[in-house]
């Protein structure tokens, strides 16, 4: 299992997920990858609980950024699931374990504002988004410096 040390992670400025493990090799990832490859990835809380899987990646189309990952938790065969929007910047992609890690406890997720597949929140509403980011102790993604690419070297 990969141990996460936030002090060794590059700052994301509130705009992107951090990445641990799997930084070498050929092909696209883990810095650039198809969103579809992340669907179904499990999410592990800070207390080690597998709380569900990523069901959707939500894009801020105008801003050209990932806004949220949608976590599907509970239920049986997709029935009775609760969905949770998680700020993208709150997640750490563990490329070695092929999962996401979230720095909150399972209890915190269970108490998080959730929704069902037929009643999605207005994710473009700044008030809703600010409240959600505050719940996860994250800076709203739209306040991050656009175009900031941190933790990556650019040879121009």
- The CATH superfamily name is PRC-barrel domain
Placed side by side, the strands forming the largest sheet appear as 1-6-7-2-3-4-5
Shape: globular
Largest sheet: 7 strands, mixed
Order of helices and strands: EEEEEEEHH
Structural class: mainly beta
What's the CATH first level?
Mainly Beta
CATH architecture: Roll
Helix count from the secondary structure assignment: 2
How far is it from the N-terminal to the C-terminal residue, by CA? 36 Å
The percent range for helix content is under 10%
Mean pLDDT across all amino acids = 79
For the record, the count of structural domains works out to: 1
Structural description of this entry:
With 156 residues, the chain is mostly beta strands. The chain has a single domain (16-142), classed as SH3 type barrels (Roll). It has two helices and seven strands. Strands 1-6-7-2-3-4-5 form a seven-stranded mixed β-sheet, with no helix packed on it. A hairpin with an 8-residue loop joins strand 4 (65-73) and strand 5 (82-87). The longest helix is centred in the C-terminal third of the chain and has 10 residues, at 126-135. It is globular, with a radius of gyration of 15 Å. The model is unreliable at 1-14 and 146-156 (pLDDT under 50).
Distinctive features:
globular; disordered N terminus; PRC-brl_dom; 7 strands; SH3 type barrels; PRC-barrel domain-containing protein; seven-stranded mixed sheet; single chain
Give a quick summary of the entry:
With 156 residues, the chain is mainly beta. 10% of the residues lie in helices and 26% in strands. The chain has a single domain (16-142), classed as PRC-barrel domain (SH3 type barrels).
């Amino acid at each position: 299992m990969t141990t996460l040390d936030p002090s060794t992670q590059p700052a994301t400025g509130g705009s992107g997920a951090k990445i641990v493990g799997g930084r070498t090799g050929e092909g696209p990832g883990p810095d650039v990858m198809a969103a579809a490859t992340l669907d179904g990835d499990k999410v592990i809380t800070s207390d080690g609980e597998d709380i569900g899987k990523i069901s959707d990646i939500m894009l801020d189309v105008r801003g050209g950024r990932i806004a949220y990952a949608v976590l599907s938790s509970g239920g049986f065969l997709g029935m009775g699931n609760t969905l949770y929007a998680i700020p993208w910047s709150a997640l750490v992609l563990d490329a070695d374990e092929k999962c996401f890690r979230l720095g909150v406890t399972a209890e915190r997720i269970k108490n998080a504002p959730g929704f069902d597949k037929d009643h999605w929140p207005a994710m473009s509403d700044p008030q809703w988004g600010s409240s959600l980011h505050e719940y996860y102790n994250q800076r709203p993604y739209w306040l991050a410096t656009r175009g900031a690419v941190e933790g990556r070297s650019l040879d121009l």
